[in-house]
Amino acid sequence: MAAARVWLIPAVLLVLAAALPFLAPTYYIQFTAKIMIMGILAMALNLVVGYGGLVSLCHAAFFGLGGYVLALATPKYDPVSFWTSLPLAVGVTAVAALIIGALALRTRGIYFIMVTLAFGEMLFFLFHDTKLAGGSDGAFINYKPEIALAGQVLFDLEKPAVFYWTVLTIVVLTVALLTTLVRSPFGHALAAARDNERRARSLGFPIFRLRLIAFVISGALAGIAGYLAAVQFGFVAPQMLGWHLSATILVMVLIGGLRSVAGPLIGAFVLMGLEEVLKSSTEHWKLVEGLVVIAIVLVLPNGVRHLLRAVLGDAERPPLPQAIDKAAKVNHA
């Protein structure tokens, strides 16, 4: 019964989310689309942080890179095709993640954090200190990408509701992709390497390759989020690649829950919703926000998503087998 309710609530939320453009003013439609974009970025980061045990501080660089690819690919007086520009953004960010991951994953712990931070800052200053796409001033995107087939425009992204549904569709696809991934033998092996690297290595798992694949997938998803952010705001700037954004996304992951696919999406809603409320309530909203975040992390160390399980009476479910045991069974099968 509890399991049925666990599926029922996301289904109801999805229906309500799809109906939002018919119920809310344009401001809230655009704000919710912005949260969902940040949610995609947070879910992407969680694949390497929560399931891979690798704290990356360069995911904002992949996010900004996806946006800059759209800005550079868009002609000055015409829209670019959605069908070509989005795969281009995914391809460029995946290649960037492959290069950075191949080098950074040769380190561990604090060194991995510092190396990813350094790569992220290098990409930041590449766009900030050169004339590429407007330098420190950024660049405008005059036309949103065109979703057309055989010369006929299928969806007009200039309309807030159409863009919102496009983002919602990509969120659902992202959740489906990550859920399939973490429940696959690949996901079990990745988690096994996180829990006990020495034992996983002794079982024959290619640890470096597993982590590199996860890093590339995560970087590509971050690029999709950056592409959508550039579409929404029609503007890109070097600040999209800054480490401050990486740290903010990491907070969303911690608030939502590390070992959950959709937890970081919930974390994005909690953090950005909290900011929206506090900004209209007090000029010292940053201070209050910090205190609330600290309280959430201390009271709910596994993320706010566990509140849902507590409400549904599923909090006492027996613990799942360790990832290393699951992966070993799959490996021996």
Characterize the structure shown:
With 333 residues, the chain is mostly helical. Helices cover 71% and strands 3% of the residues. The strands form two sheets. It has a two-stranded antiparallel ribbon. A two-stranded antiparallel sheet has the order 2-3. A hairpin with a 2-residue loop joins strand 2 and strand 3 (152-155). Helix 2 (26-49) runs antiparallel to helix 9, helix 2 (26-49) packs across helix 11 and helix 3 crosses helix 9. It is globular and about 60 Å long. It starts with a helix and ends with a helix. The relative contact order is 0.18. The model is unreliable at 315-321 (pLDDT under 50).
How are the secondary structure elements laid out?
Elements: H1 2-23, H2 26-49, H3 59-73, H4 82-104, H5 109-128, E1 139-140, E2 147-149, E3 152-155, H6 160-182, H7 185-195, H8 197-202, H9 207-233, E4 235-236, H10 243-256, H11 263-279, H12 285-299, H13 305-312, H14 323-332
Antiparallel strand pairs: 1-4, 2-3
Helix pairs in contact: 2-6, 2-9, 2-10, 2-11, 3-4, 3-5, 3-9, 4-9, 7-9, 7-14, 10-11, 11-12
